[in-house]
Amino acid sequence: MIRIAELKLPLSAVPYHPDNHTEYAPQEALSQLAAQRLGLQPAAIAQLQVHKRSFDARKSELLAVYIVDVTLAEPALEAVLLQRFAADSHVNPTPDMAWHPVGQAPADMQDRPVVVGFGPCGIFAALVLAQMGFKPIVLERGKTVRQRTKDTWGLWRKRRLTPESNVQFGEGGAGTFSDGKLYSQIKDPRHLGRKVMQEFVTYGAPPEILFTAHPHIGTFKLVKVVEGIREEIVRLGGEIRFEQKVTDVLVEGDARQLVGLQVLDQASGERYTLPTRHAVMALGHSSRDTFAMFYERGVAMEAKPFSVGFRIEHPQSVIDRARWGKDAGHPLLGAADYKLVHHAKNGRAVYSFCMCPGGTVVAATSEPERVVTNGMSQYSRAERNANAGMVCAINPEDYPQDAESFAWAFGGKTYGVEAQAPGAFHPLSGIVLQRQLESKAYLLGGQNYSAPGQLVGDFVAGTPSTAFGHVEPSYKPGITLGDLHQALPAYAIEAMREALPAFGKKIRGYDMRDAILTGVETRTSSPVKIGRGADFQSDNTRGLYPAGEGASYAGGILSAGVDGIKVGEAVACAILGLPVPS
Ligand code: FAD
């Protein structure tokens, strides 16, 4: 097959179902364009499949831009054409995008691999291991997705947090109650992202995610997909144990070989040891107790940069108009998203994060008496407001490095920070800052899980807010209006005050007075990096495979899934004595 990029059609040429707005490929128009591009008659194209479709709104007429794969009626012509267009970056052979297992588990396999965490990274590590016959055991500290949904609503509706079952912890991982955006900017030469998307479609995601440029599936569809993949892992001989928290790692010898995991059964309160020499640690960014345990056990790790800020909410119509112009409201375009960045005079970068068109701001803490914001949406993206994190990049130099702050953050433990060399950054210091900011937000919100908020106009002017304007906030259980200047370090506030009017120049209305800021956004990525080598095993602990967002090898659902596949393959290769695919 030949892959041809940059085939453009006006929006009006894209057919869709009038009732449910399902999009179809304009086969005839695309075949004509493809044939023209290759210098052929349309009849020479035997088959055409859309690989990707994006929209380009930069010109006066909004265009649908396609990448297509074509099969020629005369197969022998393919090689001739590929040679003729060798210098044309838009005409290439269609790559093999299928996933090929690295091997099969031996029939007499003794040591079943363990996967800790059942977020996207753990899910895909377990799925590929199961597909290769390794019958993984999955340990997940949270509950099944249905039970977890009830617990999560408990915080949103009744101000009741369940620390082991919430937006961060439980089946499906952190992105289960999310916008379900499924794109990423990672390099993916082996097309593993395609495997993630194909599995999602197999288990109930809409097929269009395979060809739209910025696919998303929303919260409820994601819940069904996660359940479907769980059933498949079990069907293949895997085992998924919920409410099982890993509380310790057992290592032996100079090589620090992993030999087992200590597990707390949270339902019964019993503790047990699970022997294993291969454990994928797909913990997510919020498993702070497990990071602290790793530190105590000497697992190689370091503090890393992340970002802190607020959620910002605008009427979705403001964003749609700015992005789509006269085409705003067209059923195929849906609710518009955006991506913004501003480099402030004080050297800080402020950028939009995890933008959720037509969605809601959610309470995302996993710890009592702390407030954290994030965003989610349904597949329809039909809520009245657009929301996004508006965050400021920070780095280990900004994190507290004193014993008093550590003792406050870790219930009296200081993890040796008082003895560290001057100028060093303690691996757990980012967590200290996160906890300080989240506790402050809880206080400012009124100590009942309401979040502190402020109108954008007041924030820029430096005056506290006392009443909402035209924008109705979506955060549940509620917002306490006031002054957000106390909620973040001064450098972040300064950079954000500068960024808002600058963003208003890029998206008209972005700095509107009534837009709402809600705080605080602190779980943007992991505060630690847990290093690993080319074999995907910890820098200093054999058999421990740090993976996904918590270890800083992913940022988002798709990249976490891709990392899960790579780490699942690495475990299989280690057991089979094969080289890890590059
Ligand atoms: P996680 O998904 O965090 O999963 C880790 C799992 O490990 C958790 O289930 C946890 O309970 C479990 N665990 C942790 N410690 C232990 C232990 N000691 N023992 C046993 N189990 C343990 N990304 C996108 O790409 N698109 C979006 O639209 C999007 N929206 C988001 C919305 C929200 C509200 C949130 C919170 C995140 C969102 N994200 C989104 C980010 C995305 O969810 C994460 O990047 C992704 O889930 C990371 O996957 P992971 O598997 O590495 O970790």
TrEMBL record:
Residues 305-524 form the FAD-dependent protein C-terminal domain. SUPFAM superfamilies: FAD/NAD(P)-binding domain. PANTHER family: FAD/NAD(P)-BINDING OXIDOREDUCTASE, FAD_NAD(P)-BINDING OXIDOREDUCTASE FAMILY PROTEIN. This is NAD(P)/FAD-dependent oxidoreductase. It comes from Comamonas sediminis.
